[in-house]
Design goal:
The chain is built from 13 helices and 15 strands. By secondary structure, it is of the alpha/beta class. The strands form three sheets. Strands 11-10-9-12-13-15-14 form a seven-stranded mixed sheet. Strands 3-2-1-4-5-6 form a six-stranded parallel sheet, with helices on both faces. A two-stranded antiparallel sheet has the order 7-8. Its EC number is 7.1.1.1.
Amino acid sequence: MTDTAEQAAQATAAKVIIGAVRETAAGERRVALTPETCKKLVAAGATVRIERGLGSGAHAADAAYADAGAEVHDSADAVLGSADIVVCVQPPPAAAIATMKSGAVLVGMLQPQGDAARGEAIQARGIVAFPLERLPRTTRAQAMDILSSQAGMAGYKAMLIAAQLAPKFFPMLTTAAGTIRPSKVLVIGAGVAGLQAIATAKRLGAQVEGFDVRPETREQIESLGGKFLDLGVSAAGEGGYARQLTDEERALQQQRLADHLKNVDVIVATAAVPGRPAPKIVSAAMVAGMKPGSVIVDLAAETGGNCELTRPGEIVMHDGVTVSGPLNLASSGAMHASDMFARNVFNFVSLLLDKQGALRFDWNDELLAKTVWPERAAG
């Protein structure tokens, strides 16, 4: 072998292999690797391998991945067994993790502590896991923030579901049969999902209010054309999240909110506290006091719901009020949700690659050090 050929072979061998296989979680249509990000990774010097049919749920054809430079394999095991970095949306089952290369990197929404078998499989294989839900909420991390990008799609879809379920028009209409007044919509929680829901309701012509126990959200709500609902209770917390309310604060909030909901047509609830069950904000008694034909779409259904009557994955009727608890709403907008998720993943994976496209870890980078699981000892 000539020196040039040997150098080329060494360069090829040093290339990091990035793999992605089909999602196995029920109803999951999103992908963590799109043809767009595949092309960028190949340009960065990586070898990309995918399982055939990877992007079918997000309408990304195998041919598009091949054109972007990916190797398309029939077997998920072949991809997982050879990849240095595996990217995913939902966490792979423990059996799939067991087929990964020892010491490989896994990047996605992993929730390693949410399933004992999954966590044990990660540690047994020596997997370097980066659950992106642990990513610090800093300015630099915004381009990698999967929680925010996916919440935006979820908030948008939640309001569309509310409009579909409501037995009323959202906008004001002047017709030969008289004037139709606009629907009154209340969005609970003014995080990314809530703000997108407010913006969507406003575009649909509704009369919109936003409620959040963090007073600093007033300006954001009003900037989108909504009215800030001030119930006199503040729960400003750290990192842009709300803290849990005291019993006294919650009682005052509940009393004032119950009175207000009597005149609301639609509620979209999005309030969440990281790592904890969703706060119960809308009680059964409040629902009983709402007008017949009112609608509640509970975006927090996956973590227990903001409404006491929410049943995850179901639509229920209670005294003429429709309560919907949709799950994994971001997946229902799989094309654009995947575009955003895959860009978030690409931006994070880029931190793991050197200029030659080889794998490296800079543990002085807080984004890596604070995201990795299990946590690394200081120093």
